[in-house]
Specification:
mainly alpha, 0% strand
Length: 261
Amino acid sequence: MDHQRSGSDQRATAPFAQPPLDGGSPSLWFDPPIGDQDRRHQLTRERVVAEALTVIADDGVQALTMRRLAARLGVVPGALYHHVRNKQQLQDLVLDGVLAEIDFHLDPSLDWTGQLKLLVHRLRQVLEAHPGIAGILKTRDPLGPHSLALAEAFLEPLQAAGFADREAGLAFFLLVDYTVGFAVSTSSTSVNEQRVRDPATRTQLHQFFRSLPPDRFPALVALGEHIWVDNRDQRFTAGLEVLVDGLEHAQSSPTAAEGQP
């Protein structure tokens, strides 16, 4: 839906360049919503985004529709389009608002591996505080101001460490994909996580593994109770350590130094 904009709402006043999205329509991240004198004091973009975040947290991303959101806000669906162009751009605004909660400032006294680990933990903490948002991050191109700031924060330590351009890009996506993937299966939604968090169910699982025929499943008999445990944080940290150790080894290897593929 196209609208006429006032002189103060021209693209030239936006603080950043606006990449084309959704078939060429401009991004709304840097454009203020179009004014509506009748609803200005009743509905704001902030209210729309906040309510959308609540819907996602309560019922999942699939439950977020413009009609349902309008009903929750007590307005007609058309009123939402004064603030967002469509559901996809609404998701982008919600995502960028959540990423704004991440502290991007890193201690310069930390080495590059320490900076990356700290940033990854911060990203995971924010994503898991907002169930459903990690799923949006997997399906949308994060190009809002805070999304860009997150990418910049990841890439700066990699550049400073001397990674070649291609390797820095691969390392960036390796860390982000690992974190987002882990956050998607949050402890509140994963069936396995719910099982191992319950002591009684966890005990039953361990008894089951010990009861398996040891001639067919010797490893499960011995190790089952060490796998199905409530150790989500430990698993995340262990995986991150392996990833960063691998990046450190790759960065210091002769092949990486020579810039070979």
